[in-house]
């Protein structure tokens, strides 16, 4: 069944997409933005060099689908289930496995790095009341 992106992605096409996606530069751009048409236009242009003809929308859709599938397999594994798996899990884990950890530790740090004025101002108010 063809999805809105047209014909199904072949194994080689998906591998090429993942190879481009694994580029640190592309990853950083994708992490830092929601409006990512420009990035996927770059990805599509790189795929063309491999002789793969996909437009940016197809690339973005495939990227989102792979990411979603990866996350559902990963969370199933984290909860102890081994029944869920996917074809490119290890490749995606190499890309997404570390950045989810980084983001988790980053947000933990945000909690502890509150400006000192905040806590001081709060305690002054408490002592006045």
Automatic annotation (TrEMBL):
Residue ranges, annotated region (Disordered): 100-129
Biased composition (Basic and acidic residues): 105-129
InterPro entries reported in the protein's UniProt record: Myb_DNA-bind_4 (IPR044822)
Domain Myb/SANT-like DNA-binding residues, every copy: 7-95
Coiled coil: none
Alphabetical list of Pfam families matching this protein: Myb_DNA-bind_4
Protein name: ZSC29 protein
PANTHER family, alphabetized: HEAT SHOCK 70 KDA PROTEIN 14, MYB_SANT-LIKE DNA-BINDING DOMAIN-CONTAINING PROTEIN
Domain of life: Eukaryota
UniProt organism field: Erithacus rubecula
